[in-house]
């Protein structure tokens, strides 16, 4: 691997104990790496993945002109369990395949990533853990579990737990998928295409804001009509496995950085542990990870600063390589967090 070339690899973790009390057998963590770890082992940046996204989805944040510069930092993108690249319903053989895949928590994901950092990267100090959506939830989970190892956190378009209205949104998209008779409670022989199409169409109405559609911002994505955008969302979800989608959706819906053996359900105690410099960056128009909920979380994080993205792109504003104005603000915040460590 050269410094500016992505390495794609797997960390073979063996049997992984889960917070539910079960075990994920022969767990595999897929990850992308660019840049090299320095001698002090203090230049590692972690970019956990988001819902529906592969590791490559975070690549746009990284580059020679970005504060996330592989000439300076070792940057690692770990793929979430259940999402299709790491151990997931669709790629796990035997008794844990498909609908029999065990429930996975934010804690489970981060504890596996912790093992990656310890066993592959020598227990390196994390200069930054940064993520969008569920990637941001994982970043916050990292910060509260390992405050001595994580030097800064940047969380965009997320909250530290899945709030009630967010849970109801997820029930809606879940129902759209599960009502396809071909789904068969997850025991399908062929992809439940009608359900996957419905899932994509329902989700699209939540991913962007009302103003995004009112002002025809979808034209900036190259679409000639709203129907064109909806068809794109259909095709995107037809390319995904239904059980994978629902496994990670459950991780999201049950997500709470305090629900683990360390904090035993004490959400406020988990937030209070986030004493390192942090940026919480919700979108003003996010319909499910709302700015109001994110602000309540940030108030309880001693090291956090709230910076709201003034965007019409809704939840999508925070994603790597998406809306350019929001991306500039997000990368500027990352640069500030990293530069504070050098001063």
UniProtKB/TrEMBL annotation:
EC number from the UniProt entry: 2.3.1.31
Protein name per its UniProtKB record: Homoserine O-acetyltransferase
GO molecular function: homoserine O-acetyltransferase activity
Xref: InterPro entries: AB_hydrolase_1, AB_hydrolase_fold, HAT_MetX-like
Gene coding for it: metX
This protein's record includes keyword Zinc: no
Keywords, in A-Z order: Acyltransferase, Transferase
Record-annotated AB hydrolase-1 domain positions: 45-166
Active-site residue list: 133, 286, 315
Pfam families: Abhydrolase_1
Domain of life from the UniProt record: Bacteria
């Amino acid at each position: 691997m050269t410094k500016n070339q992505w390495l794609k690899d797997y960390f073979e973790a063996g049997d992984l104990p889960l917070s539910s009390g079960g075990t994920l057998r022969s767990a595999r963590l897929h990850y992308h790496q660019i840049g090299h770890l320095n001698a002090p082992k203090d230049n590692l940046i972690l970019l956990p993945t988001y819902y529906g996204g592969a590791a490559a989805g975070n690549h746009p944040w990284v580059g020679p002109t970005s504060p996330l510069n592989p000439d300076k930092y070792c940057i690692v993108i770990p793929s979430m369990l259940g999402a299709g690249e790491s151990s997931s319903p669709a790629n796990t053989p035997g008794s844990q395949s498909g609908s029999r895949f065990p429930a996975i928590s934010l804690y489970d994901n981060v504890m596996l990533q912790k093992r990656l950092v310890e066993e592959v990267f020598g227990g390196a100090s994390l200069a930054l853990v940064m993520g969008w959506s569920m990637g941001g939830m994982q970043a916050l989970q990292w910060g509260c579990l390992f405050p001595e190892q994580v030097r800064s956190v940047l969380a965009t378009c997320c909250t530290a737990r899945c709030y009630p209205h967010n849970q109801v949104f997820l029930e809606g998209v879940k129902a759209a998928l599960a009502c396809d008779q071909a789904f068969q409670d997850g025991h399908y022989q062929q992809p439940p295409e009608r359900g996957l199409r419905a899932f994509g169409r329902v989700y699209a109405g939540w991913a962007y804001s009302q103003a995004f559609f009112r002002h025809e911002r979808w034209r900036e994505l190259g679409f000639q009509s709203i129907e064109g955008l909806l068809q794109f969302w259909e095709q995107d979800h037809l390319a995904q496995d239904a059980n994978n989608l629902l496994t990670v959706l459950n991780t999201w819906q049950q997500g709470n950085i305090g629900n683990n053996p360390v904090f035993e359900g004490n959400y406020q105690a988990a937030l209070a542990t986030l004493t390192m410099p942090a940026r919480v960056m919700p979108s003003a128009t996010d319909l499910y990870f709302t700015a109001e909920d994110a602000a309540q979380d940030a108030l309880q994080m001693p090291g956090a600063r709230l910076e709201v993205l003034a965007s019409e792109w809704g939840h999508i504003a925070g994603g790597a390589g998406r809306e350019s104005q929001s991306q500039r603000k997000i990368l500027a915040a990352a640069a500030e967090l990293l530069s504070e460590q050098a001063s």
